[in-house]
């Protein structure tokens, strides 16, 4: 009896397993359809076109995440000016990625040419009417002197926000002198973008300043104040459409995770990101948004929109499987693991250093190098940002 019963059960089990297997195949098949179909149709229908916003130019100030080549023009021997950087677009343009950046996808969506680097004068003059990019890798919101007063020394001096503003002034003085009226008109419907913060805070962390200490010495409020003052200058120049980015989940950067690896009390979220770091980013973003609120009250005729990179990135992480990402916090392009926790790490991105290994499928990685996103991640982040800012600029009005 027992034997028979158990055989019957195992027969039923076998049937159940077959049924389940079939069912599973169906589920996998249908979910793969679900994954593939919305992804393709998504880009076509769900993501609005910024073209409808009528931006006729893009001007940008910021850090490496939006550097389309300025630092590479100044220093052609830096790693991001050479392969494997740019491998996906078959050209090393000085962008710190395997391909395009968020700013490129924003420009495309606005039906504008990719924003040329200010340092490439020939290109900058050619695109006089379509915008210029002043962003520079390693750039801080505060000057070297202002940071030194807080005991934060910069290993490298990269053109900070005030220097980039000077370039913007030079550019518009030259441009406006030639076509005065057109210039004013152009500014009226140009999109001005700005991103700062990560490098100010990164320098402080590298020098062992704790987050508590940083909050106490007003670094965050000074960074936000510098951004506000710069925005006021830009608005006084005639900007009426402004997009100001917060910082992303910097605790998920491979470099942040490695830097905390010796810290026994560090805590991590479910993706392996350094919690403290992300909380700090959230804090900066709150202070920044308060600052933007004040600016809006002072400039009611200006659209001042917050670029929520933090939640854009959170959304990419939350949906990573359906978006096709397999690695969230490891760099696609890196040196062999044994070499990582070395002094060099605290200065360099490592991708391009001796012993560099490049993953075969960058599109499955969120991070290209230890601090910068892949083209695929940039595209997904841009999609989120575009959807978020579209109604805020009242583009469908
Ligand atoms: C500068 O821009 C021109 C025209 O777009 C381009 O051909 C050239 O490669 C650029 N130079 C650098 C150093 O990026
Ligand atoms: C800067 O660092 C020095 C030496 O570590 C210390 O004596 C000084 O109090 C610090 N100053 C500030 C403003 O943190
Ligand atoms: C420029 O902006 C002002 C105020 O927002 C508006 O009244 C004017 O029509 C705009 N001019 C052009 C040419 O877009
Ligand atoms: C930061 O701390 C680490 C480990 O405690 C130490 O090796 C390093 O020299 C410190 N760096 C600075 C700039 O104080
Ligand atoms: C180590 O992690 C703890 C807990 O998150 C944090 O409070 C502390 O500042 C970290 N130490 C360093 C040197 O970053």
TrEMBL record:
Entry keyword Repeat: no
Pfam families cross-referenced by the UniProt entry: Lipase_GDSL (PF00657)
Q: Which domain of life is it from?
A: Eukaryota
Query: Listed GO molecular functions?
Result: hydrolase activity, acting on ester bonds
Keyword terms, alphabetized: Glycoprotein
Return the PANTHER family for the record: ESTER HYDROLASE, PUTATIVE-RELATED (PTHR22835:SF675), ZINC FINGER FYVE DOMAIN CONTAINING PROTEIN (PTHR22835)
The similarity comment for this entry is:
Belongs to the 'GDSL' lipolytic enzyme family.
What is the official name of this protein in its record? Uncharacterized protein
Protein's organism:
Salix dunnii
């Amino acid at each position: 009896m027992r034997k028979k019963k158990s055989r019957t059960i195992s027969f039923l089990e076998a049937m159940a397993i077959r049924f389940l297997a079939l069912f599973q195949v169906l589920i996998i098949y249908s979910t793969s359809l679900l994954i593939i179909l919305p992804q393709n149709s998504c880009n076509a229908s769900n993501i609005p076109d910024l073209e409808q916003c009528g931006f006729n130019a893009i001007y940008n100030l910021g850090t490496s995440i939006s550097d389309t080549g300025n630092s590479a023009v100044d220093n052609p021997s830096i790693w991001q000016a050479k392969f494997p950087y740019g491998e996906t677009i078959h050209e090393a343009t000085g962008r710190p990625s395997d391909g395009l950046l968020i700013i490129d996808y924003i420009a495309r969506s606005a039906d504008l040419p990719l924003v040329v680097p200010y340092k490439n004068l020939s290109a900058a003059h050619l695109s006089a009417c379509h915008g210029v990019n002043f962003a520079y890798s390693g750039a801080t919101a505060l000057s070297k002197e202002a940071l030194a007063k807080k005991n934060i020394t910069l290993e490298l001096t990269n053109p900070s926000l005030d220097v980039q503003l000077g370039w913007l002034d030079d550019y518009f003085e030259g441009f406006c002198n030639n076509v005065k009226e057109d210039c004013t008109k152009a500014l009226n419907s140009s999109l001005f973008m700005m991103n700062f913060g990560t490098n100010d805070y990164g320098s402080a962390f590298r020098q062992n300043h704790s987050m508590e200490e940083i909050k106490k010495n007003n670094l965050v409020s000074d960074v936000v104040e510098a951004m506000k003052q710069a925005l006021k200058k830009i608005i006084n120049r005639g900007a009426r459409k402004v997009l100001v980015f917060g910082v992303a989940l910097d605790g998920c950067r491979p470099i942040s995770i490695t830097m905390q690896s010796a810290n026994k009390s560090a805590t991590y979220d479910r993706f392996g990101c350094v919690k403290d770091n992300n909380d700090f980013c959230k804090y900066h973003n709150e202070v920044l948004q308060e600052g933007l609120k004040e600016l809006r009250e002072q400039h009611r005729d200006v659209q001042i929109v917050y670029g929520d990179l933090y939640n854009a990135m959170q959304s990419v992480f939350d949906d990573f499987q359906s978006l096709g990402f397999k690695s969230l916090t490891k760099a696609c392009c890196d040196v062999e693991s044994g070499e990582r926790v070395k002094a060099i790490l605290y200065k360099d991105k490592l991708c391009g250093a001796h012993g560099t290994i490049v993953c075969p499928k960058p599109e499955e990685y969120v991070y290209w190098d230890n601090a910068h996103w892949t083209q695929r991640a940039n595209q997904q982040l841009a999609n989120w940002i575009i959807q978020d800012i579209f109604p805020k600029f009242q583009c469908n009005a």
